[in-house]
Write a structure and sequence with these properties.
By secondary structure, the protein is of the alpha/beta class. Helix content is about 50%, strand content about 20%. The protein has helices spanning about 40-45, 45-60, 85-95, 110-120, 155, 160-180, 185-195, 200-210, 215, 220-230, 230-255, 270-275, 275-290, 300-310, and strands spanning about 5, 5-15, 20-25, 30-40, 75, 110, 125-130, 135-140, 145-150, 265-270, 295. The two termini are about 15 Å apart.
Length: about 325
């Protein structure tokens, strides 16, 4: 185990579709190094590029610790959804020319939800809901069981995510422009945001690149703005998204027999930073089937959560 001065150190990596964050903590849990790089979701970037970005983030984190090696590490990576995927990613990490010299053979690879959960609570009965560009839900209970729902990327899941909200907004505006739906504030906000004035221009912008999941998710904040202006359609999009996120939690709570117990729900991700109306609707929906649930926010970032997992596991 690597030692810095008199203290053991631990690495945590939170790898998503947009960025990778690495954190180094000491045995007291104090952050002593941080670094960032591009995204490392292997479903988006492939394993090689993902590991290269992880290595970059870790190297930045260790810039003040040039001689470190064999560090207990937790790689919490979006897109690593099964044990087989985690095993394959772990094997590839230990073969990577840079990572193999740094991380311990006892290091672990988990889905990013596990680090996000640890970032919010250390309770045994707990669920984490991530709603950012994509969506994912994971939970544990007091007898050591775990369960998940969602997290299968945008073709199979991602309900309630920024991507889902943004796509609904784009489709709604298209219907308005075609005469299939009544005009609303949402159309004006979208056209103003993109500096366009016609559906033909919207079609050209969306398809010329074409837009990816992140581009579509960037439209999501407009629904909150429209809803605050009384836009009924935007309010319905948000309400639907909240309902979908609530179903993710409900599925996990049922699998873990938590519905009638007190348990923590950690909510994290960009959607909760921009969608206050969604957050309110979600809590109302969840408390209908889990009246004793307690909503909490992360106490630390997910990369630090991953480092704590490396220390504890």
């Amino acid at each position: 185990m690597c030692v810095a001065g008199q203290k053991n150190i631990y690495l945590g990596v939170d790898g998503g579709g947009t960025k990778t964050e690495a954190v180094l903590i000491d045995e007291d849990g104090k952050v002593i190094g941080q670094g960032q790089a591009g995204g490392s979701n292997p479903a988006v970037f492939g394993v090689k590029k993902s590991l290269d970005n992880i290595a970059t983030a870790i190297q930045k984190t260790l810039k003040n610790f040039p001689d470190t090696a064999d560090i207990p590490t937790c790689l919490a990576i979006a897109g690593v959804n099964t044990k087989k995927e985690a095993d394959n990613f772990s094997k590839a990490a230990f073969l990577h020319p840079s990572l193999s010299k740094i991380i311990s053979k006892n290091s672990i690879v988990v889905n990013d939800t596990q680090a996000a959960l640890r970032a919010g609570t250390n309770d045994k009965n707990a669920v984490v809901l991530i709603a950012g560009t994509g969506s994912n839900c994971f939970g544990t209970n007091e007898i050591g069981q775990s369960a998940k729902s969602g997290g299968r990327d945008f073709i199979l899941s991602d309900e309630g995510s920024g991507y889902a909200i943004g796509l609904s907004a784009l489709k709604a505006v298209t219907k308005m422009s075609d005469g299939r739906a009544s005009m609303s504030v949402l159309k004006d906000l979208l056209f103003s945001h993109l500096k366009i004035n016609s559906i033909d221009q919207l079609t050209e912008i969306v398809n010329s690149k074409p837009w990816n999941k992140t581009d579509i998710a960037n439209i999501a904040p407009l629904t909150e703005k429209a809803a605050k202006k009384g836009d009924r359609l935007a309010s319905e999009i948000i309400k639907t998204a909240a309902g979908e996120l609530g179903m993710l939690i409900k599925a996990v709570a049922e699998k873990l027999d938590l519905k009638n117990k007190e348990y923590k729900i950690v909510t994290t991700g960009s959607v909760f930073n921009i969608q206050k109306i969604l957050d309110e609707n979600l809590k109302k929906d969840v408390l209908k089937f889990s009246p004793h649930a307690v909503f909490v926010k992360p106490k630390v970032d997910s990369a630090t959560g991953a480092a704590l997992l490396a220390k504890e596991l």
